[in-house]
Specification:
single chain; 229 residues; alpha/beta; 6-stranded parallel beta sheet; globular
Length: 229
C-alpha cells in the first residue's frame, strides 16, 4: 500500500498540481512593468531564463529581487519559451554574449529554462560563472512531470527527443546548484534535485513550482543561496 508521501521519482500528485494555478494567479501583478536590464550597471551579470510556456514577464519579480541584491540582471530576451528548437542554444549564446560584455554571468533558469542554462554552460563555459536551476527536470525520466503531454503538443517533438544534441544529465563544467521542492506540483522532486555527479549542490526550497519565479519568500531564499555560494 502506497504511503501518503508519494514517490519523489513520480509526477507530483493532483492535489499539488491544482495549487499551482492558484500560486500563479494571485501573483500576476508582478508581471507588469518595464522589461530589459536592471540593477547596478557595474554589478556581476545575471541572466534569468523563463520556464516552458513563460516569458521574461513571468520572471520579472525574480529579476527585480536579484537586481536589488546588486546584480546587473537581464531576462533572456527571446520571447515566449515554447520548447526547444534547433537554434535555441545558438540564440541564447548570442544574447548572453551581448549581455555579459566580457564577464561570465550567473544563469538562473526556471524549470525548462534551467535545462537551457545547463546546456549553454556546456557549449560556452567561458560565458557562464555558474548555473542555478529552479525546479528543472534535468535528471531521471523526462516524463516524470505533469506537463510533458502539453510540451509535446506545443513543441512538436517528443520530450525525450529534443532537436538538440544534448546529454541532460551530464554536469556542466561550471559550478551548479539545483534548487528543488517537495511541494512542486509540476516536476518530480528527484528529477529537479538530480544525482551525485550531475550537479555540485542541491538545496531544498519550500515553494510551489510557480513559486520559484513568483514567490517573495522564494526570492529571498534564492538570493541568500547566491550570496553564500
Amino acid at each position: 500500500m502506497r504511503s501518503r508521501r508519494y514517490c519523489e521519482d513520480d509526477p507530483p500528485p493532483r492535489r499539488l498540481l491544482i495549487r499551482e494555478a492558484a500560486a500563479l494567479t494571485v501573483r500576476l501583478y508582478r508581471a507588469f512593468g518595464r522589461l530589459g536590464e536592471r540593477g547596478d550597471p557595474e554589478g556581476p551579470p545575471l541572466m534569468v531564463i523563463p520556464g516552458f510556456f513563460a516569458s521574461d514577464r513571468s520572471t520579472l519579480g525574480l529579476q527585480r529581487a536579484l537586481a536589488k541584491e546588486g546584480y546587473r540582471v537581464s531576462g533572456w530576451g527571446l520571447g515566449w519559451n515554447l520548447g526547444a528548437r534547433a537554434d535555441t542554444l545558438d540564440r541564447m549564446v548570442v544574447q548572453l554574449d551581448r549581455f555579459c560584455r566580457g564577464r561570465p554571468a550567473t544563469l538562473v533558469g526556471w524549470s525548462l529554462g534551467g535545462i537551457y542554462a545547463r546546456e549553454v554552460a556546456k557549449v560556452r563555459p567561458d560565458l557562464v560563472a555558474r548555473v542555478v536551476s529552479l525546479g528543472s527536470p534535468f535528471a531521471g525520466d523526462p516524463r516524470a512531470n505533469n506537463v510533458w503531454r502539453l510540451y509535446e503538443l506545443v513543441s512538436r517533438h517528443p520530450v525525450d527527443k529534443p532537436p538538440l544534441n544534448v546529454d541532460l544529465g551530464a554536469k556542466p563544467p561550471v559550478p551548479t546548484i539545483a534548487l528543488w521542492s517537495r511541494r512542486d506540483g509540476i516536476v518530480a522532486p528527484a528529477c529537479a534535485r538530480g544525482f551525485e555527479g550531475q550537479r555540485d549542490r542541491h538545496v531544498e526550497l519550500d515553494c510551489s513550482h510557480m513559486g520559484f519565479a513568483t514567490s517573495r519568500r522564494a526570492f529571498r531564499r534564492i538570493a541568500a543561496i547566491l550570496r553564500d555560494d
